[in-house]
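# nightly structure sweep
# worker-07 picked up a monomer target from the shared queue
# config: single-sequence mode, recycle default, output format = structure tokens
# input follows
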Amino acid sequence: MHWFLVVPLKPLARAKSRLADTAGDGLRPGLALAFAQDTVAAALACTAVRDVAVVTDDALAGRELAALGARIVTGEPAGGLNAALAHGSSAVRSRTPESAVAALNADLPALRPRELARVLEAAVEFPRAFLPDAAAIGTTLLAAAPGQELLPTFGTDSRARHQASGAVELRPDGVDSVRQDVDTGDDLRAALALGVGPRTAALAARLLIPGQPGG
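# output follows
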């Protein structure tokens, strides 16, 4: 089975506010874009992925991610992340009604294509399934088989909420890069330890992060 991924990305000027203790206002938008670029590039390189649709109304992000090969879905509705994911999923299935769809976070700069393929292969077994984040509180991927609604409930304690919605928690081994999203400085350090993509690495080199070159 090949998957269509839906990746939501808020306007870069408002992205990654929780990185304020690590990256200044002038660097955070670029860092958010770099996370998304490395995430999308890795996703497009995954053999289990047919296409990536990025839901964003940010013009710069749209141009840069389209250049990588992503399809850009605009007209993001009000209502936050879950509304954006529902909008993106609807756009995908308006073109390919019987597609398998998965929501993927845009802040997975250490993402490895083979590990993503492992997660998606595990998801094939269930109508709806999700992967918890590295903190085991949130969610980095939510998958829906053909004919199943995505029904995203991202946000605070989304792991518990996705479980309550009937989605099956996936527990494949060796998929740390798919679980390591980046919201805080500590998250970024953990992603750097795994090995991030080239765009994130270039910007992170400008930060004073203990344990990294120049930090």
